[in-house]
Structure formats: C-alpha cells, structure tokens
Amino acid sequence: xxxxxxKESLRHSVQERIAHLSEKEKxxxxxxxxxxxxxxxxxxxxxxxxxxMKSEADIHLLLEELLLxxxxxxxxxxxxSTLIFRQVLDxxxxxxxxxxxxxxTQDEPVxxxxxxxxxxxxxxxxxxTGNRMGRGNGGYDKWIRKQRKMNPETLFVGIALECQLVGSxxxxxxxxxxxxxxxxxxxxxxxxxx
Length: 194
Prior knowledge:
Elements: H1 3-19, H2 23-38, E1 46-48, H3 60-68, E2 72-79, E3 82-87, E4 95-96, E5 102-103, E6 118-121, E7 125-126, E8 132-133, H4 139-150, E9 155-159, E10 180-183, E11 186-188
Parallel strand pairs: 1-2, 1-6, 6-9, 9-10
Antiparallel strand pairs: 2-3, 4-5, 7-8, 10-11
C-alpha cells in the first residue's frame, strides 16, 4: 500500500474513533489537557495555537487563560492558500475564515519571522516518536519547516485526544515531526523540555 493510501486509511480510522466519543468525553479530555498544558507554558510566552474544530481537542479554555495572564497568542489564518498566524487580542473579534474556522481578522498583527516560543499543533493522528499526520494539505508542515529555520528554539507540541495517539504514523519526506504531544494524561515523550 502506498504511503498516501496508508495515511488516508489512518485518517478515516481516527475520525471514526473521534466520532465514537461523546461530547461529554471530549469536553472532559479538553479541560484536563488544558489544565496540564498550562503548567508547562511559562508566563510571558508567545504561543501559536489553533481555534478548535469539533473533531479536535478543545483548547479554548487554555487560550483564554493564556490571554488573561498576559501571554501573546497567535492563531492560524489561511490567506492566499498560505498558513500565517495573526495575534488574538479578543476572542469576540474572531471571524470565520476560508476553511470555516474562526480566525483573527486581517487587521490583527502577523507573527514575524522567528517569533514564537511554543506552537500548539493540531493533527489527525500522532505517534509517540513525534510523527504527526494532518488533514492532508501540508500547510502546517511547510510552516513548521520555515519556522524551525527562523527560530530553532521554537517548541512544537501536538495536541491530541487520547484516541488520536496511534502506534505509528506513516510519513513522507515533506512531513515535519513535532517535539512533544500533549493529551489529557500530560506530555507524551517530549523530545525537548518545555
């Protein structure tokens, strides 16, 4: 089986696992994950994150807490088919972007090259060695590669529901690994310390 077929099969399998979770289970995992992760993010950090979709770990509470304590938070935007990050100053000012996900408006500041201490990365599946599989468009892989060149100290943390951890994620040369995975049980096999 070709790697792209393996990935598609795994995407489908993980999507089915997520679909079998109740909203109550997903919400509980998200709250616990947020509590654990907040203790690992130093105050004053610049954090790039994502606004959660229904099929992703809900980190909305973490994002709110980061803003409340004075951290700088950026969320992704797809502009001209390119992934960029814009600063969030108020969650009430987010709007639906091209992919139907809430994102900052175009008048919010853009993350500058090399800025960013911690990146919270969504994905469809993760394994314990840091491999990540996204939704298939490669936007995050390209952005992670570029960010690593600009700031090798940036820490990339995959955010996962427990059912998104798998034995092995099939990879291709363009796939970028992450440094750690955060779940409701805590950090998994961190390559770097937060």
